[in-house]
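Fold it.
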Amino acid sequence: MAVALVCAFLTFEAIRQGVTNAVITGFGVTVGALAGAAACLASLAHREEIVSHRRLRSLATTDAQWRAAQ
């Protein structure tokens, strides 16, 4: 939400200062790309955490099965 407000403010200021539409569009595309990259990295980190948890659970199950067989 804060990022959207900052982008809106900067866009308003750019228009007020007479910056061309191409520059404003470029700024918007850049911010969108950075936001998308940040979302992807956050998603990958969360996915790796889930995979790691599953591996640990699998190892615990294997260990329990091995101990039961002894």
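The CA atoms of residues 11 and 43 lie 29 Å apart.
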